[in-house]
Design goal:
Layout: E1 3-11, H1 15-26, E2 31-34, E3 48-49, H2 51-59, H3 63-69, E4 71-72, E5 78-82, E6 89-94, H4 100-109, E7 115-116, H5 119-132, E8 136-138, E9 141-148, E10 153-159, E11 165-175, H6 182-187, E12 191-206, H7 210-213, E13 220-223, E14 236-242, E15 246-253, H8 264-275, E16 283-297, E17 301-302, E18 305-307, E19 313-314, H9 322-341, H10 351-373, H11 376-381, H12 390-398, H13 405-419, H14 422-425, H15 428-432, E20 473-476, E21 479-482, H16 483-486, E22 492-496, H17 501-514, E23 518-522, H18 535-539, E24 547-550, E25 556-560, H19 567-578
Parallel strand pairs: 1-2, 1-11, 2-8, 5-13, 11-18, 22-23
Antiparallel strand pairs: 3-7, 4-7, 5-6, 9-10, 10-11, 12-15, 12-16, 13-14, 14-15, 16-19, 17-18, 20-21, 22-24, 24-25
């Protein structure tokens, strides 16, 4: 049997697999992607691309290509609740950062804006860039099994065109093969939850709905109609794929009865019910059935086999977290593989992948499923769950317009129920507040201050080790750059200021001793980078002479509040721990003060 060799074999070309390949090739790591399919995604599937993911894509050099194809943020945000698109509107929620009170939060949080980028448009950008940078891609190649040994993983695959099998020998295997992952199953990764919580249908269609939607632009139009609460994601949904002519309907079905026969006649009947106008020409382009899942893996790795994306967290599309979490899994994993493979890190570094990403996966699954339940109060406020008679249902909906005390209470309940959906459509904190705790983060001994506001709704920047490097605009001559632009790019970055010469020398000593790249960024008046707005000084939580070490994924790995004669030892020790060459240092009994 023939054997092909590579450093990293990635099974799956979806968001997780494609992003892993892109990051590895960007870092110069030989890798191969195999997919059992003969093409990339041909339906919209995932679409919300949040601010943190856009920061990742910015660092990987594809942000602008994504933005060129995506629906921009300002066209995403009028989430509409209605009886049909042509029918009565029940209320709207300003969403996805488009509430004026939230817009500033987004602008302060990062250099990139979220957008709506359907998966069938996203995957080609990620894959094309990965292949251009060195990834080997094989379509129609099905993963069958793998065996591990001390030096690597031998994977058996089948060429679905020829019908024969062959082996691929890799030093590491990444399972990014989706919600029915055979890699994760064969690796025996323990999971919590279950598959098949509810049933949903996707119906993709073309129709010019400009007259019904352009005046209230949105990614999602929620339809509260008879049958909308059966299975699915809690309501009927009309999703904009491309303004305002490409669409997808999501509709539920009873799992016990099984999915209906998805004939064109059936699909048209569902679409027309949700549109509410039978005169609009509609062309069905695809249909599919799927299940709402509530399952996450407790660990993402088995020795040299590491899994990412839907292989380890499976949940409904609520909150738009799926592809975002998958791409961020890949970003976390790729730099660690790079350092282990080039010998600058110990294999122990890879243990931090599960430690850091599994809690995020669990939060994603729990939040997405909780959001489904938060739709029910909208139905309850309209009193439509009390009857199975459609005529009575519409009478109950119409009652909210009466000039009575009870109708006034109903209107208030409806406003409150719609407003509560902010946890699905404006969960900025869920998207941006990920804090890592692992051996690849060196605690500084300071107490955890927690969050000043709701951590699901509001992003709270911090330089505490384990938090994402805060964004601030700084200048270099006439250029304006984000602090995130100064970090990343596959290397460690040490941030300091005036009086931080000891840290600059420490970075040089660490480079020599450990053989890794440590870029140094000095921010202050008269330095290469200046802070004209004072934003960075307000965010860094250290003195001018202090230091922040950003890992290649722009997460803080080490922090020290002031200059110190021990800078070289402290920084080299921190890098040794992060790279898995040393045991974690015990936390100091007395925490050093963090500068105001």
């Amino acid at each position: 049997m023939d054997t092909v060799e590579t450093d990293v074999l990635i099974v799956g070309s979806g968001p997780a697999g494609a992003a892993t390949a892109l990051a590895l090739s960007t870092y110069g790591v030989p890798n191969m992607v195999v997919t059992r399919y003969g093409r990339l995604a041909d339906t919209p599937r995932a679409h919300i691309t949040n601010q943190r993911t856009m920061e990742v894509l910015r660092d990987l050099g594809v942000e602008e290509r994504v933005r060129e194809r995506a629906t921009p943020q300002h066209l995403m945000g009028n989430t509409v609740f209605c009886t049909s698109l042509a029918g009565e509107e029940l209320g709207r929620l300003r969403s996805w950062g488009n509430d004026p009170r939230v817009q500033a939060e987004h602008e302060l949080a990062g250099p990139s804006a979220m957008c709506d980028m359907p998966q069938h448009l996203m995957e080609p950008i990620l894959v094309d860039a990965a292949v251009a940078r060195g990834t080997a891609l094989r379509f129609d190649t099905e993963y069958l099994a793998h065996e591990q040994d001390a030096e690597g993983v031998t994977v058996t695959v089948r060429d679905r065109l020829r019908g024969d099998t062959y082996r691929i020998r890799a030093r590491y295997l990444v399972g990014a093969d989706g919600g029915r992952s055979r890699v994760a199953e064969n690796a025996g990764l323990p999971t919590v939850g279950r598959m098949g919580v509810a049933g949903s249908l996707n119906i993709v269609f073309e129709a010019d709905l400009t007259a019904l939607t352009a005046h209230r632009p949105s990614t999602l139009y929620w339809v509260l109609a008879p049958g909308a609460t059966v299975g699915g994601i809690g309501a009927g949904l009309v999703r904009c794929v491309r303004p305002w002519t490409e669409w997808m309907v999501v509709w539920g079905y009873d799992l016990e009865a099984g999915p209906p026969d998805l004939t064109e006649e059936y699909a048209l009947s569902v679409v027309r019910q949700l549109l509410g106008d039978d005169e609009i020409p509609v062309r069905i382009t695809s249909t599919s059935a799927w299940t709402v899942n509530h399952l996450y893996a407790e660990t993402y790795a088995d020795r040299r086999v590491l899994c990412a994306g839907d292989a380890v967290h499976r949940h409904p599309p609520s909150n738009g977290l799926g592809s975002n979490t998958s791409i961020q899994d890949a970003y976390n994993l790729a730099w660690k593989l790079r350092h282990v493979l080039d010998g600058t890190a110990a294999p122990a570094l890879l243990d931090s992948y599960s430690a850091e990403r599994a809690p995020v996966g669990r939060q994603t699954v729990e939040r997405a499923n909780k959001s489904i339940g938060e739709t029910a109060p909208v139905f309850e406020a309209l009193n439509v769950l009390s009857t199975a008679d459609p005529d009575q249902m519409w009478r109950n909906v119409a009652a909210r317009k009466d000039a009575t005390a009870e109708a006034e209470k109903q209107r208030q309940r409806l406003r409150e129920a719609i407003a509560a959906k902010v946890y699905e459509f404006n969960a900025h904190g869920v998207e941006m507040n990920q804090r890592y705790a692992s051996d690849a983060v060196v605690p500084d001994g300071t107490p955890d201050p927690g969050f000043a506001r709701d951590p699901e709704l509001y992003h709270q920047p911090s330089t505490r080790p384990g938090a994402k490097l805060p964004h601030a605009w700084v200048t270099r001559g006439r250029d304006r750059l984000s602090t995130l632009d100064l970090g990343g790019r596959g290397r460690f970055t040490l941030f300091t200021g005036i009086g931080g010469d000891c840290w600059r020398q420490a970075a040089e000593a660490a480079r020599r001793e450990l053989g890794i790249e440590v870029a140094t960024v000095v921010i202050g008046p008269g330095q290469e980078y200046e802070d004209p707005y004072g934003d960075w000084a307000g965010l860094r939580e250290t003195g001018d002479g202090g230091a922040l070490l950003a890992r290649p994924d722009n997460y803080i790995g080490f922090r020290h509040a002031t200059a110190t004669p021990d800078a070289a030892d402290l920084l080299t020790g921190a890098l040794r721990q992060i790279l898995g060459h040393a045991r974690p240092a015990p936390e100091a009994s007395e925490a050093p003060e963090v500068a105001d």
